[in-house]
Amino acid sequence: MEKKKINFSEEERARRGKQEDRRGVRESEARLLEKIEDEFNSRHNVTPRKWTQLKKCWENMKDKWRRTNAEDMRERFATGGGTPPSSEMTDELRRVGDIASHTAVHTCRCTAVADPRHASRRVRWYGSFVFFSLRMF
């Protein structure tokens, strides 16, 4: 004789719903990345790129901004009260910093993509990348 199976608790049902939400977010992220790729490649005088290449370019630019920003901060605090040396930050890196600094602040793990204030960091990144791709490329 088989044992009776235990019903799912309220907590287990709630977690199951979150897993389904994540699946939906992943699908929307994939569609958004394809949209970014299509938008970038639709411009004339650009080499067609895959979304993976665009994402890597964005990551490299953010990394370069972080390194430059950290170097500027070290120089600023190392002056000992004198005038700080001029920054090596270019206009392009300043624009990257304007976008990247806002994406690092949000740590909410909600799945509501419609309102960017309540989006997760990963989804927020894609949102900023759309903004980045419209302004920079």
UniProtKB/TrEMBL annotation:
It comes from the Eukaryota. Residues 34-68 form the Myb/SANT-like DNA-binding domain. Residues 1-28, 69-90 are annotated as: Disordered. Self-associates forming complexes of several hundred monomers. Involved in transvection phenomena (= synapsis-dependent gene expression), where the synaptic pairing of chromosomes carrying genes with which zeste interacts influences the expression of these genes. Zeste binds to DNA and stimulates transcription from a nearby promoter. This is Regulatory protein zeste. It comes from Rhipicephalus sanguineus. The lineage of its organism: Eukaryota, Metazoa, Ecdysozoa, Arthropoda, Chelicerata.
